[in-house]
Design a protein that fits this description.
- By secondary structure, this protein is an alpha+beta fold.
- Helix content is 18%, strand content 45%.
- Strands 1, 2, 3, 4, 5, 6 and 7 form a 7-stranded mixed beta sheet that branches.
- A hairpin with a 2-residue loop joins β1 and β2.
- The radius of gyration is 14 Å and the shape is globular.
Amino acid sequence: MKTIKVAAAVIRDGARVFATQRGYGAYKDYWEFPGGKLEPGETPEEALRREIREELETEIRVEEYLTTVEHDYPEFHLSMVCFLAAVTAGSLTLKEHEAARWLGPEELDSVNWLPADRHLVSALKARMETLA
């Protein structure tokens, strides 16, 4: 099975985190943490900064490694390296997503997450009280 390597940013503002809703593809309308595929020779941190700049017209500071999620989709295996991040410039303009929301700890289960992102949400819940 083909492995796709991606990086995801848990962009935070105090105890709230930024979630985006996919506007395309087989998993349209599911929610995810923004990010994307690693280019050859690119570190996960570099990929995150590039992807957030491209998808959200925003600059971020990658702050802290959270977890790596390994998940099997029917078509491929996903290896997703996840980091906490903060906005340093820009206004989180949606270029590819159809919606976005800031979610507090009590709202994390209020959206329909992509299967791989559900693993990240579980890891994140354990950390939410320390994010404020």
